[in-house]
Amino acid sequence: MGPATAMNLGRLLTHTARRIPAAPALVWRGRTWSFAELDARVDRLAAALRSLGVGKGDRVLVHSRNSNAMFESLWACFKAGAVWVPTNFRLTPAEVAYLGSSSRAVVMLRDAGFGGHAAAVRAASPHLRQVIAVGDAAADELDYETLLAAQVPPPPDHEAEVGYGDPCWFFYTSGTTGRPKAAVLTHGQMSFVVTNHLADLMPGTTERDASLVVAPLSHGAGIHQLAQVARGAATILTAGEKLDPAEAWALVAEHRVSNMFTVPTILTALVRHPAVDAHDHASLRHVIYAGAPMYEADQAEALAKLGPCLVQYFGLGEVTGNITVLRPDMHRPENAGSCGVPRTGMEVAILAEDGTRLPPDTIGEVCVKGPAVFAGYFENEEANRKAFAGGWFHTGDLGRLDARGFLWITGRASDMYISGGSNVYPREAEEAILTHPAVAEVAVVGLPHPKWGEAGVACVVPRAGMTVDEAEVLAHLQSRIARYKQPLRVVVWDALPKSGYGKVPKALVKARLAEDGVAF
Questions:
Q1: What is the dihedral of CA 38, 43, 48, 53, to 10 degrees?
Q2: DSSP helix/strand/coil, 144
Q3: Is the CB of residue 60 less than 8 Å from the CB of residue 106?
């Protein structure tokens, strides 16, 4: 166990429920759960997981849209000492099956309508013992509410004993290899992240605050909500799985929402919707955006509409968002385009390829160290060796620090692009396109897109004597990869541009697309 340096993260909910039991904890579809109610349901779910043989360190796969059950599952896993393994609910059954088998999950919780995903996980993973379904359980599945009702509530202080380095969350992040990797987040690390979020992103948060969730809880939004529970702020979920700006602004006004976690594309959609002028949003103090740089014109538009409440942060799942912050008072013209200064307790450096630090205003790889850095990728020594070379975590992003310590991202070392706030790795689409019998070669690149920030263009070379067109390639991808990973355009070329080494540099592909006038 080691020294007594870690609290079970689930006790954040336990403590708040004891302090303010009647205060609203979660609001969804017109229903409100108090902290006492939420905590009691979480305790029953923790008991249910234990009854199914889930022990400390066991993984629980959760494939769900934002809902009370998904939120409850996070806290129940923590309290039981298990590892929460959430997925992006937009993934295909095959993609979720890979996450289930690679994490060796023993129990799966699925939302209504995802029976096919559960069947795919069962088929792929010999470790899966049971599936819990919300609302439409099949004969071989357990119904969520029935399972909770059958439990004897556990005694007080039943939370599992944990060490600082004990895992609590597998945060799946795609790699340039195209296969998602599980970033292992731990109880000790996440305690720091929660504290840091409260210090740097939304200082002064209390039970008088409310937080609106407009992004999937499976990733950054879930981490953001841990801090809300810690301080007793209410979490407000939108009703549907798609962003409805009119609903979002109505909820802001109704619940006096003071903070929310967004990505630039969501923030821009909210700001440009007429509903922003129809509802009172003066309660907003911290509108946090992350996941991608924001176009300067969009940033100025948001500031003009919402006032000085924008907070930007730069981070990755592997550093749980904790790299830099640009506070509301830092959103000034001279900082436009910057993603801010290092987070409290974190160190950021720009390193050359040989690992040496570069002076201010010199472009190199953005590297980071500090307590928010994850424990490593699950069972992936090669990836860990690369990621932690020289004692720093290597982000794969290129940038520069100015003399004041402000970070400016200049590009990506990888070919990843960000579409609608989600990281898209071209290799996944390329692999899927190459399974088409008429395709010989393909290169996918991200180009600027007015709505999504960036979107993919696939450059395809047909096999000799064969033909292929855009509609055919896009149809081929429908069932193979999630919609957000699919390119929006396909161009057919006789050959891909190649370097002297026979490689296909993405810069040459983009140059040719520009020459051909291909753009969104």
A1: 140
A2: helix
A3: yes
> Mean pLDDT, consecutive 10-residue segments, the chain of 520 residues?
86 98 98 98 98 98 98 98 96 95 98 98 97 97 98 98 97 70 97 98 98 94 97 97 95 98 88 96 96 74 95 94 97 91 98 95 95 97 95 92 94 77 83 89 92 94 93 95 94 85 76 94
**How long a stretch of residues is the chain?**
520
C-beta separation of 132 from 110 below 8 A: yes
Residue 183's beta-bridge partner residues?
Answer: 171, 377
d(CA 93, CA 97): 6
Q: What is the pTM of this model?
A: 0.85
DSSP assignment of 204-227 equals: T--TT-EEEE-S-TTTHHHHHHHH
Burial of 3 (0-12, 13-18, 19+ CB in 10 A): exposed
**To which H or E segment does residue 491 belong?**
strand 489-492
User: CA 165, CA 249: separation in Å to the nearest integer?
Assistant: 40
Burial tier of 362 (Cβ tally within 10 Å: 0-12, 13-18, 19+): exposed
Which residue has tokens 């987070």? 343
92: three-class secondary structure by DSSP: coil
